[in-house]
Fold:
Amino acid sequence: MLSYLWLGLLVFLGVHSIRLVADDWRSRCIARIGKVAWKGLFSAFSVVGFALIVWGYGVARQQPVQLWSPPAGMPYLAALLTWLAFVLLAAAYIPRNYFKARLYHPMLLATKVWALAHLLANGTLAGAWLFGSFLVWAVVMFASSRRRDRRQGVIYAPSLLSRSLASVLVGTLAWAAFTFALHGLLIGILPLS
Structure:
């Protein structure tokens, strides 16, 4: 049912957009209830939203509404793009790497690339809603984060080659584990089979 998917997207992306749409309110709430309580509420709403997304998308996949048929080679392009997304995701957690020093917000870029890859490879209505929503959200959040960085004069630490190589290695290993095993176990589809 798309309604559960929509509700999940609204909750999950809404919670992750608070800083964009209500940063002052967020700051007041953190000051009033404390950082730990804020993170607890944020996490709880995120988990509920994510669960609704997973459930809603799973139900919608049982009776897919096909909008387009992706070309035959699209899974390979999607696999390449998701590899890049995994490298960028790893770079978000490894300090002083090239990707963070030059691209500033690698997790949001990873989300953009992941969403685009899946949007290209899935031609269903539910896929368009899920991946299209994440793509639009990541584009808006990236632009907002970059504006906030410029306004606050944020300077990113210079990169180290070892940290950049570690980002590529960790991202590649995570991508391989997910592509060849975990995606099948968790999602029910092996992307390159």
